[in-house]
Amino acid sequence: MSGRKTAVNWIVGGLARGRLDFGLGLVLAVICPVATGLLGLQAGSLETSAPSGANPLPGLRKLFDTPLRDPSICRGPDGTWYLTGTVQPFWAYNQGIQLWKSPDLTNWTALGFVWKYGTSAWHKPYLEAKKPLWAPEIHFLKGTFWLTYSLPGWDGTAKTSGCGLLKSTSGRAEGPYEDVQPGERLGDEIDASLFEDDDGTVYFLWHSGKIARMKPDLSGLAEPYRWLKTTVPDPNPRHHSRLCAGIFGRDSFDHVGFEGMFIFKAHGRYHLAGAEEFEGRYSCLIATATNLFGPYGPRYEALPHAGHNMFFRDGSGRWWSTFFGSDGRAPWRERPGVFPIEFDAEGRIRPAQP
Q: C-alpha angle with apex 110: 128 to 275, nearest 5 degrees?
């Protein structure tokens, strides 16, 4: 799950997960990249809060006040917005995936659980160990809704973590949903996401840069995964989570983030985002490329305190990012929000300036 704790520790694969400041995978929070509209979302229309001092994320708006991590938002074909994310208890058995809907990204209605894990064969040891479900994402692709989901290691190690994909059999966001690969995990870690390229090809993404093309009907992976990395290592220890050495190796510094992977395309370039603990902030770092599989240039801290986020465009074409807050200096903690972003003269992403 994007955003691990730094105050409450536990072990995954022999690695201490930080506090409620940062999390393991591509959890993400993800907003459907085909989303348009953002109806009714105007500056100042939603609750904004921040600690004393300058706001590092101008225009940040809270969507509602329910505890939630790794928020993911998608716009359906009828214009309705749907939101999901990691629900409480974040670090213990939380049953499955809940959903909210809104006509305007301001007024939200809770739909409750739309799916509870445990029915697929590979879930059994996780259910027996009472593990939580992390970082679900909702997407509308190929005429129906899809939910990615992640389960942390049932034996307390990262080696048994996994992620999967659900398909709505009704075409409705409320489901019912079926697991596209019930016999075994689809990915071998957490923080799963989806990316659809310009030619309609869909890719399954997870963790810190793993990606694989899916079959045309999204029933499984069509190829072994590749691991996307930067071409310019960043060896500064203050730019890495303490988990990085265990995940990538002590002298490996070519990853974009240690979890929360997300990809979107804008202005002819692929933007690979990942969550990282950067100078004490749980932030969104980004590297870019002109080809999906790279090479990706140097990573940079694009959005402070906004790790495990995703990007989407509103009806006017303006770009936005999701947010939930997972470090002690974030504007708030563990509540879903959004804020506008912009591209600078060099094509780098940053919070939109007033």
A: 65
Which residues in the chain come in under a pLDDT of 50?
2-52
Cis previous bond, 295, omega within 30:
yes
Residue 236 contacts residue 242 (beta carbons within 8 Å): no
Alpha-carbon gap, residue 296 to 306, rounded angstroms: 21
Q: What is the pLDDT of residue 256?
A: 96
What is the SS3 assignment for 124?
Answer: helix
Which domains are seen in the chain, by residue range? Answer: 23-351 (2.115.10.20)
What the block records as the tokens of 143 is 């005429």
Each residue's pLDDT tens digit, 123-173? 999 999 999 999 999 999 999 999 999 999 999 999 999 999 999 999 999
| pTM exceeds cut of 0.70 | yes
The total number of residues shown for the chain amounts to 354
Residue 134 CB contacts under 8 Å (≥ 6 apart), including other chains:
1, 23, 24, 25, 27, 70, 86, 149, 150, 151, 152, 190, 191
Among 236, 246, 225, which residue's Cα sits nearest to residue 293? 225
Token pair for 54: 């300058």
Q: Which residues of 52-62 are buried (b: 16+ CB within 10 A; e: fewer)?
A: eeeebbebbbb
Count Cα atoms within 13 angstroms, Cβ side, for 339.
28
Provide CB contacts within 8 A for 20, sequence distance 6+.
3, 4, 5, 6, 7, 8, 90, 326, 333, 334
Alpha helix ranges (H) inside 163-282 = 244-248
